[in-house]
Amino acid sequence: MAPDSPGGPLPVQACVGAVVLDARGRLLLVRRRNAPGRGLWSVPGGRVEPGETLTAAVAREVREETGLEVRVGAEVGRVTIPGDGVVYDVADFACTLAESSAVPVAGDDADAVTFADAADLDRLSCTPGLVATLRGWGALPA
C-alpha cells in the first residue's frame, strides 16, 4: 500500500530493474542521467509503460539504457521507493545477456554504463540501498 499524503495515498508507479551479470560475474550498472538518483549508479530499469508486461519492460529498459539484449528470468526481489509525489514499486529480475561479447553503450536516461565487480561496487556512488538490497537477495558479484 502506498504511503498516505495530506491529499490521500500517493499514486504508485510500476517499475522494473534488471540484475544482469556478465560471464565474469560482474554486475551491469548505469549512471543515471535523470532524477531520481541523477549521477548515481544503479541497475538498468525504469517505468512500465501502459499495457506492457514486466518482462517486456525489463528487456526494453536494458536495450534503451545500454544497447544490450537480454533474456529475462525470474523476479529476484521487489522494493518500494518513495519519490516526489509518487511511490515507485520496483520489481527486479535476473537477466542473462543474449550475446556475451556485446559491449554496452550508454543511451536513453543513462550517461555511462559499466560492468562492476565487487571492488568496483565499493568505490562507485550507487543509489541509496542498492548494494545492501542486492546483497540481501544474493544477487551481487562474488
Describe the protein in words:
The protein is 18% helix and 39% strand. A hairpin with a 4-residue loop joins strand 7 (70-82) and strand 8. By secondary structure, it is of the alpha+beta class. It is globular and about 50 Å long. The model has no long low-confidence stretch (mean pLDDT 91). The chain contains three helices and nine strands.
Low-confidence stretches: none
General form: globular
CATH class: Alpha Beta
Q: Please give the order of strands in the largest beta sheet.
A: 6-3-8-7
Name the structural class: alpha+beta
Helix fraction, binned, reads 10-25%
* DSSP summary, beta strand count: 9
Assembly annotation: single chain
Strand content bin: 35-45%
Pfam family, one: NUDIX
GO molecular function: hydrolase activity
Organism: Geodermatophilus aquaeductus
Protein name: ADP-ribose pyrophosphatase YjhB, NUDIX family
Task: Give the topology, please.
Blueprint: E1 4-5, E2 8-9, E3 12-20, E4 27-32, E5 41-42, E6 45-47, H1 54-66, E7 70-82, E8 87-97, E9 110-116, H2 118-123, H3 130-136
Describe, in short, the structure shown.
Residues 11-139 form the Nudix hydrolase domain. By secondary structure, the protein is an alpha+beta fold. The protein contains three helices and nine strands; from the N terminus they run ββββββαβββαα.
